[in-house]
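Here is one chain, start to finish.
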Amino acid sequence: SKDGAYVREHFFGKYPETAALVADWTDEQIWALNRGGHDPKKIYAAFKKAQETKGKATVILAHTIKGYGMGDAAEGKNIAHQVKKMNMDGVRHIRDRFNVPVSDADIEKLPYITFPEGSEEHTYLHA
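Its structure:
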């Protein structure tokens, strides 16, 4: 996907019934929808149910966007898996999107980030 207008046209716009669902929405609101393959709660629920299922195979189909979260560098592009380097605009996009605590003054140094022991981030990374 490229943006909310693209999703409106190519996803919701296929049928009058789905187009009507978002007729009063802005393109920004449509773009902010979290698809199942990128929704942590849906992913957790799917894996939990799969682990609890006994006696038969389970398949999880995750609808995702290539390069999700990479912004203009690769999001929604077929080259997402080949991106090896990112320009500073892309780095800033990732920083802002994921609230990485790096100032504008330090961003070009690409500093190594550490989180305080006991913080939510530190606990998650060391679980």
